[in-house]
Design brief:
45% of the residues lie in helices and 18% in strands. With 137 residues, the protein is of the alpha+beta class.
Length: 137
């Protein structure tokens, strides 16, 4: 994850036109893994494996991505978001849970400039099984 974050930060820096205002450290999108304990990092890895199997759709948003999960995964999604939101603080997280039974469970992750590219890279392991099925948009 650190390598991905470093590559994204470098690309954002390289692709920013000279003279353009640079985002402050607080505005840069990055993951601060130091905010997570070893147990939280291990649990995040476990949850990503579980959530991969119940992720049904990923949609592109103007400033991020939306992820639709099986409604039965509500508890795991909530736990995963509590961990991810700790280390990826500049991002916004929104979870909606439709009427039950059978209503959708959506997580929308968004942010300011540069966030969309960061989200796509950082959360790629979550959506990796969608691509072969052609569901990712």
């Amino acid at each position: 994850m650190k390598l991905v974050a470093a590559v994204v930060a470098f690309l954002c820096w390289v692709l920013t036109p000279l003279g353009a205002p640079q985002p402050t450290e607080a505005e840069r999108v990055h993951c601060n893994l130091a905010t997570l304990s070893q147990a939280e990092r291990a649990r995040d890895a476990e949850l990503v494996k579980v959530l991969r199997d119940v992720l049904r759709e990923r949609t592109e948003l103007p400033d991020g991505y939306g992820y639709r999960f099986e409604p039965t995964a509500l508890k795991d999604v909530g736990e995963w978001l509590s961990i991810v939101a700790k280390c990826c603080q500049p991002l916004s997280y929104e979870m909606t849970f439709g009427p039950q039974p059978g209503g959708p469970l959506w997580v929308r992750i968004s942010g300011k400039e540069g966030a969309k590219e960061f989200i796509e890279l950082e959360f790629a392991p979550l959506a990796e099984r969608l691509a072969p099925r052609g569901v990712t948009r």
